[in-house]
Design goal:
The chain has helices at residues 2-18, 37-41, 58-61, 120-127, 279-282, and strands at 25-28, 47-48, 62-64, 86-90, 108-114, 133-142, 153-160, 168-173, 190-195, 200-205, 212-219, 230-237, 243-250, 262-269, 296-307. By secondary structure, the protein is mainly beta. Strands 1, 3, 4, 6, 11, 12, 13 and 15 form an eight-stranded antiparallel beta sheet that branches. Pfam families: GH131_N.
Length: 308
């Protein structure tokens, strides 16, 4: 009993060091055990869940794992997790129909978008303060039963301003090319963290049965004269402390018009070019191309944003 108490006390102390202090957390996407699939369907809580196949519910694609798969140990006590991991999946029905637009037949996608009080655009200025620096934390694990297809490109975590660019993104697989190049591309099984201009800042292999913990620190110039857009990346696996893997570096192609964007965690599968399509269709990656329609998924936990 004494021994157990000591172990628990030590465990708590370690965890207290690892856990970010509450006041620094600007937005918390770690899913409490009280959250239900009805909340996912209603977009209640930290995530807006409307970017998905139009004919199925959000909880058909995004499932709460309860105690089935423990969340990242980096931010949770062993055996006493404070959040449940999420599975984000796609299948052939994952064709998103944006309001007033045409179905995105080129992609298969499910996105969860950070929101505060039901507003994603309302969250943006809080998570991305002009002249400030904030860190986007997320942990990713493979779903061994529903693997990705590394001949395709996947965009899985990103901040997207309204012009569709990404302030930073995490990418897996073989980058989409038109015409199609040799597949799979080198390092297709590696995570790539890319800047706004798609330069790779950090890459690491996507190992099975492992939580991959990322923390991307973003400097937000906004329209503040004399300040710059920057990125830095920290990374670890499982319960190991985060280590800086890419020191603070300029992200110079971000414009003032791109000062705010939505924070997504997602599975977006890009197509391969379809030789039967016309050249203009082949370059329209959103609406055309080859998809197998396979059931694929990624697991997420430890998703939150802190102020530096
Ligand atoms: C996959 O979806 C596309 C687009 O809706 C459809 O044309 C195709 O027949 C589907 N394939 C399968 C195997 O269901
Ligand atoms: C969703 O349902 C509509 C109406 O039945 C249908 O036209 C569309 O093809 C369906 N989309 C997918 C991806 O199955
Ligand atoms: C969200 O709602 C809560 C409760 O009404 C309020 O205290 C908080 O200021 C709101 N936050 C934002 C960013 O609107
Ligand atoms: C992976 O994608 C390629 C290219 O579309 C396809 O040829 C292959 O059959 C896919 N593999 C699986 C397991 O679906
Ligand atoms: C902003 O970037 C420019 C060009 O890289 C550099 O000369 C300048 O010192 C930077 N300003 C700040 C405040 O970091």
């Amino acid at each position: 009993m004494f021994r157990l108490a000591v172990i628990l006390a030590v465990g708590l102390r370690v965890a207290q060091c690892a856990l970010p202090s509450g006041t620094n957390v600007l937005w918390d996407g770690r899913v409490p055990f009280s959250m239900t699939e009805a909340d996912i369907d209603a977009s209640t809580g930290p995530y807006l869940t409307v970017v998905k196949g139009q004919n199925e519910s959000a909880s058909y694609y995004t499932t709460l794992l309860g105690h089935k798969i423990p969340p990242t140990p980096l931010h949770n006590l062993p055996l006493l997790p404070s959040e449940q991991a999420l599975s984000v999946s796609i299948d052939n029905t994952s064709v998103f129909l944006p309001g007033g637009s045409t179905p995105q037949y080129g992609f298969r996608r499910t996105d969860l978008i950070a929101q505060i009080n039901g507003s994603n655009s309302g969250a943006d200025p809080i998570l991305e303060p002009a002249g400030g620096t904030t860190t986007f934390h997320f942990s990713i694990q493979a779903d061994v039963a529903h693997p990705l297809n590394y001949t395709h490109e996947y965009q899985i975590v990103f901040i997207e301003p309204s012009d569709g660019t990404h302030i930073f993104e995490v990418q897996l697989g073989s980058p989409f090319t038109d015409p199609t190049g040799p597949l799979p591309a080198p390092n297709a099984h590696w995570f790539k963290v890319r800047d706004h201009a798609l330069n790779v800042l950090f890459q690491t292999p996507f190992l099975p049965l492992t939580w991959h913990n990322f923390a991307v620190t973003v400097g937000w110039a906004g329209s503040t004269p004399g300040s710059n857009n920057t990125l830095a990346v920290a990374y670890s696996v499982d319960g190991l402390p985060l280590q800086t893997v890419a020191p603070t570096t300029p992200n110079p192609t971000v414009t003032a018009a791109e000062a705010l964007g939505d924070f997504h965690i997602a599975v977006i599968k890009l197509p391969l070019v379809n030789p039967a399509d016309t050249p203009s269709e082949q370059s329209d990656v959103v609406h055309y191309g080859i998809q197998e329609g396979t059931h694929e998924a990624l697991l997420y936990s430890g998703v939150f944003v802190t102020k530096d």
